[in-house]
Specification:
This protein has 184 residues and is mainly beta. The chain has one domain: Immunoglobulin-like (Sandwich), CATH 2.60.40.1210. The protein has 1 helix and 12 strands, in the order αββββββββββββ. The strands form 2 sheets. It has a 7-stranded antiparallel beta sheet with strand order 7-6-5-4-10-11-12, with no helix packed on it. The longest helix is centred in the first third of the chain and has 18 residues. It is globular. It starts with a helix and ends with a strand.
Length: 184
């Protein structure tokens, strides 16, 4: 009896140690959130990573882009949808003013980690983690204390990354303070 009780205590202690390793979980709180019409973007700077939650009133895809040089060109895009209860994401790069393609097809890397996703009551939510400074040749460094240009968009009703957006907006965001303003 005593051996079994000690074994359970050891297992419980190991479980507590694993919970405290600092890995980000979908239940974690985000430090900041921006809402624009039917879409929201929440985030937390977690060491060298950015934890992101994006939601929109759509049963299609949701997407975010960081730091375009012009329109969509040179932006690091992450798009996601939920189909049959399973979340899917892609890591893309803005290779033209009005186009983006998979990073891996453009010589880059897929360096985004899917945390989870849901589609409930007509709202799609995707959560992921990405490095602030990736080793991907296509991605620019995301500065925490300065201004970051953020593109938000979502597509309508189809779980396909090829469908065009129904909504889009451009924001200038300070990821450290949460200050934001719409860019025309």
């Amino acid at each position: 009896m005593g051996i079994m009780r000690n074994f359970k205590m050891i297992l419980g202690g190991i479980g507590l140690m694993l919970l405290g390793t600092g890995t980000f979980s979908p239940a974690a709180q985000y430090d900041h959130e921006i809402q624009d019409k039917k879409m929201s973007f929440a985030w937390k700077v977690d060491g060298d990573n950015l934890a992101v939650k994006m939601s929109a009133q759509t049963e299609g895809w949701v997407g975010i882009g960081f730091n375009p040089s012009k329109m969509m060109k040179d932006a690091n895009f992450i798009l996601g949808y939920v189909k049959g209860g399973k979340a899917e994401i892609v890591d893309e790069f803005g290779n033209e003013d009005n186009n983006h393609s998979l990073d891996t097809k453009l010589g880059g890397t897929d360096n985004v980690t899917l945390v989870g996703g849901t589609e409930e009551g007509g709202t799609t939510t995707i959560e992921f983690i990405m490095p602030l400074k990736s080793s991907d040749k296509n991605d620019t460094e995301i500065t925490v204390d300065g201004d970051t240009i953020v593109l938000l968009a979502y597509g309508g009703g189809r779980d396909s990354f090829k469908s065009k957006h129904q909504f889009r907006t451009t924001l200038k965001v300070n990821l450290s303070t949460g200050a934001s303003q719409k860019v025309k």
